[in-house]
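Write out this protein's structure.
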Amino acid sequence: MTLSRRTLVGAAAALPLLPRTAGAQARPRIVILGGGFGGASAARFARDHFPDLDITLIERSRRFTTCPYGNLVLAGRKRIDDITFGYERLAARGVRVVHAEAAAVDAEGRAVRLADGSRIPYDRLIMSPGIDLRWGAIEGYDQAASARMPHGWIPSLQPITVLAEQLRAMRQGGVFVMAIPDNPFRCPPGPYERISMVADYLKRHNPRAKILALDAKNGFSKQPLFQDAWAELYPGMIEWRGASSDGRVTRVDVANMTVETEFGEKVRGDVINVIPPQYAAAIARNAGLAADSGWCPIKPESFESARVPNIHVIGDASIAVPMPKSGFAASSHAKQAIAAAAAQLSGRPVPEAVYFNTCYSHVGEDYGISIVGVFRAQGGRLIEVEGSGGISPRNAALPEGRRAEHRRLEALYADGWYESITREMFALS
């Protein structure tokens, strides 16, 4: 790896503060919609670095369960409580936290309308709404079907414990089937970490079981690293089939617990995990922020919407290629969006945009892999800085006897990253 695994937020301390105003009523109002990796990071960063801003965070849930580390709950290596956090510390630091359902954005009137009809006005809105699942994109797969064939992809919609309970109840020697979508979707390595953590559980509790992963793509993030690990840790247990090998699932039959592939093969599973195609959450689409793709185009220098002024769209809902849709990326978007909004409100130039991403994956006990990237805004688009990133070395590239230690350290770095970013988001330190 060419970069340190430590969280990179160094430029924050150098950002100028807004000039003080005559009274609290005159303070510029930043409203943040959504309290996940993007929204919570934005609220903490704004409160710490821009004390003259009025900061409101709108989040319907009082507790937030992270998608990262949810796969470790499947493996039985984490509890759901270990990855669930509250907003009390953010509120104690001076963020106004409103636990309510946001019904709509009035871009012309610069206000968020809540489900009870009340309105929260803003000068700048930071949208971190997350994703929705495209129900019906796979024939037969709707919200009702997800009770029998869980997705476990949006914790507020369906906790990962639903899938975990089915995994634990699976018959000995049974088949765990996954349907994986085409790009783009939240957390590109997530399905493959999930395969790994399901295999980790089955190796210990149901060693004759099999995993069949049906993928709508012909390749995936960190593929050689995952497949090295599967061969080493779970020989004979995992079969992955890409699109060219008839891996695209087009239909499900919940009653018979089968999925049907593009060329008509019917596959039965004892447990079936369907991760459907996705798009930006409805509140963003309904506000006119999304393109025909369902995702929200942005200006890379500030993450301000390319379609609606005074609104910044961060995190999974945004179109930020080549950056992946990840928690670390959302946190990085958040800091630049807040700094840009603060600058725009005070008539200053937007700070130079530099974004970071580190994505760790657990593939077994004491076995981690990762990928890192640094990105800049240049010429109206995001580019990855040449030579800035890196990926874990493959098994063959590691000296004999060093492999296990290298993978163990990567798993420790992953744990350190997770603790660091959640402590930052939820003001635990």
